[in-house]
């Protein structure tokens, strides 16, 4: 009888320990749900970095203000059809994310990518191009001589976009703030010299 009682006592203690362990697990799970807002364990198909689900742009907010309708149906920074959502120093839509420009052809309006990753406004650029003509040095009618191009540099047009091999034409940059932009093949050479360059851009 004594042995039976002892055995029963051991069984009761084992049951109590199991019950306490279960209570502890439930308490931990409840604490995790309170902290994370999710049940535990976290479902395998839930991505903590996934965007907000959406059916229209009204479901989205900055910085992911575009709804990728027909694609992932989540809020993103941009899409191919909403590339205009990328502005400022991140004007290029790369997939569904905005980034800074790294080449001039990524700025189709001005063909001028600035060092900070933004695209220069076309009206702020003086265009200096091999084979250009004298004029206002616009994108459609670029200047062909440096002396003409530098005359157009002013506070509202501080960028000089050089294309091809061009001549300085005796130009002098004096009391002007200018940022010279060009492709890897652009060369600014001294007037009358066949190839001696003042500046390889």
Description:
It is a single chain. This protein has 201 residues and is α/β, with parallel strands linked by helices. It has two helices and ten strands, in the order αβββββαβββββ. The strands form four sheets. Strands 5-6-8 form a three-stranded parallel β-sheet. The longest helix has 35 residues, at 2-36. The model is unreliable at 1-12, 14-29 and 31-49 (pLDDT under 50).
**Overall pLDDT:** 79
Strand order of the largest sheet: 5-6-8
| Rg (CA only) | 33 Å
Give the termini separation: 101 Å
Give unreliable regions as ranges.
1-12, 14-29, 31-49
Helix amount, in percent?
10-25%
* Strand-pairing-aware structural class: alpha/beta
**How many strands, what sense, and barrel or not for the largest sheet?**
3 strands, parallel
What count of helical segments does DSSP give? 2
Beta-strand level of the residues, as a percent range?
A: 15-25%
